[in-house]
Design a protein that fits this description.
By secondary structure, the protein is mainly α. Helix content is 76%, strand content 0%. The chain contains 6 helices and no strands. The protein has helices spanning 2-22, 38-64, 69-86, 95-128, 139-148, 154-183. Helix 2 runs parallel beside helix 4 (95-128) and helix 3 (69-86) packs antiparallel against helix 4 (95-128). The two termini are 37 Å apart.
Length: 184
Amino acid sequence: EELCNFSEGYLTCLQLKSFFETGVITATLPEVFKSGIASIDDERYLLSLISAVRELERFAVGRARVLDLQSIRTAWTVARCVEQAMLQFDFRNSGALRQRYDSLKYVVKRLETIAYEVDLALQRRNAGEAKEILSVPSKAARSDAAAAVPAVNLDLLNGIKERYEKYTDMREQVIKRSRDIGKA
């Protein structure tokens, strides 16, 4: 258990490092952390990805203190990209992963709220200084910005999704067969 927690924390740090250096939050899983069991590796990877997005929320709170709206919007865009990619998964039987995934939508909402509040604070500050007031970008502009940021490696996540679906199907077959034996 402690080794899994360590490796998840380390992978979270690698993903954050990748994001801050390259703009892509989905870092490749290092060979040294692969267990050889794809379902375990994939689950650990996805848990660390969600944790990295939760850390981006903490980053945004820090940037809000200095009214850095651009960094907050970038974090928000990345969180939305990860959320959209994770919507493709079916986590109905995966305990911890399902709970973490559920928390992702709240992180996205909080980042949106932080961006809105910082934008308002900037508008108040600028109005007080008689400068041009910043406007909240339209939904179309936010969509264009999200599309322009390649923050998520979709090929990597699609591979994990395919393996995850195969694993889930096999697990459900085992559960069904074990129930059938009990009925006989």
